[in-house]
């Protein structure tokens, strides 16, 4: 089982940029779909972006354009960069893994990190 640890959250100003990292252990991520999710206060957790083992990316349609997911299999790490941050981007951001299937099938991710908090001021 792959274990995931997110980092990179914190306080960011409106209009700024941020890069989140997710480091995996226990298995190589090269075989997994990797995804980023977020939970905004008073809303359900939503998928933000996914990336396949072959680095094909998929984004939530409502969030397309400001987020970029990438992976470095040699470092067993996945990244989420986002720019032009808004107050509505404040929340907890989670990394997750899924073995096989459609990497945009958000409901099927089955390994989760503890999350990293992003606060936009």
What is the strand and helix layout of this fold?
Layout: E1 3-7, E2 10-12, E3 18-25, E4 32-39, E5 46-51, E6 57-59, E7 67-72, E8 77-82, E9 91-99, E10 111-112, E11 116-120
Parallel strand pairs: 2-11
Antiparallel strand pairs: 1-3, 3-8, 4-5, 4-9, 5-6, 7-8, 9-10, 9-11
Care to describe what's here?
- The protein has no helices and eleven strands.
- The chain has strands at 3-7, 10-12, 18-25, 32-39, 46-51, 57-59, 67-72, 77-82, 91-99, 111-112, 116-120.
- Strands 2, 4, 5, 6, 9, 10 and 11 form a seven-stranded mixed β-sheet that branches. The chain has a four-stranded antiparallel β-sheet with strand order 1-3-8-7, with no helix packed on it.
- How would you classify the helix and strand content by structural class? mainly beta
Number of helices: 0
Largest sheet: 7 strands, mixed
Overall pLDDT confidence = 95
Distance between the termini: 37 Å
The helix content, as a percent range, equals under 10%
Shape: globular
Primary descriptors:
121 residues; mainly beta; seven-stranded mixed β-sheet; four-stranded antiparallel β-sheet
Write a brief caption for the model.
The protein is mainly beta. The protein has strands at 3-7, 10-12, 18-25, 32-39, 46-51, 57-59, 67-72, 77-82, 91-99, 111-112, 116-120.
